[in-house]
Write a structure and sequence with these properties.
By secondary structure, the chain is α/β, with parallel strands linked by helices. The chain has four helices and eight strands. The protein has two domains: 42 residues; 129 residues, Immunoglobulin-like (Sandwich), CATH 2.60.40.
């Protein structure tokens, strides 16, 4: 393989790898966080979450993060907690489409607005948004930590937080990179 072709192949592989990781969103955005003063409902309406994305919750030690089923979310209860974390920074991988519900388990905080309902959409390219039919890319699995037992022994906790930043996502970027890669492989 010629040197320019090799360099192009490496560059495109790096782009494909980055695109397959999903986006990382800090809950509340740059002006807020996981607290009672942030407009969490307004923030979540401003983004579109896809399977493969991650949510990062930053909060003080006077708060915690509890994922609960819909009934507990509506009642601000932690009775049927799915996950519980009080580390101050929680990273939640959004692995599949559907709704997820998060509350602060500290008494009174959920009732004062410290709750978040998110809708996760499938990470597929919609044919309706593009008249061009593109080949499917192979599925990619995000690396994730193994959940460990929480302090109470009954609720799994979240994997350790990983430092990272989110940038804007372009749904066409993987397809553009795929075609550049294919061109590089066959043109040289």
């Amino acid at each position: 393989m010629k040197m320019p072709s090799l360099l192009l192949t490496v560059a495109v592989s790096a782009i494909l790898f980055r695109c397959s990781l999903g986006a990382i969103y800090t809950v509340g955005g740059s002006r807020g966080g996981w607290d009672e003063s942030t407009d969490l409902e307004g923030w979540v309406k401003s983004i579109k979450l896809l399977a493969g994305d991650k949510l990062v919750f930053h909060y003080s030690k006077s708060h915690d993060l509890v994922e609960v089923p819909k009934t507990d979310y509506d009642a601000c209860e932690t009775t049927n907690a799915i996950i519980t974390d009080n580390s101050g920074k929680s990273v939640v991988p959004l692995t599949k489409p559907g709704k997820r519900y998060f509350i602060c388990g500290v008494p009174g905080h959920c009732a004062s607005g410290m709750k978040l309902e998110v809708t996760v959409f499938a990470a597929t390219h919609s044919a309706a948004s593009s008249p061009v039919t593109l080949p499917a890319l192979p599925p990619t699995t995000l690396p994730s930590g193994t959940p460990v037992t929480g302090a109470g022994g009954s609720s799994p906790s979240l994997p350790p937080a990983q430092p990272s930043s989110a940038g804007p996502r372009s749904s066409l970027m993987p397809f553009v990179a795929y075609f550049i890669f294919a061109f590089a492989m066959f043109a040289f």
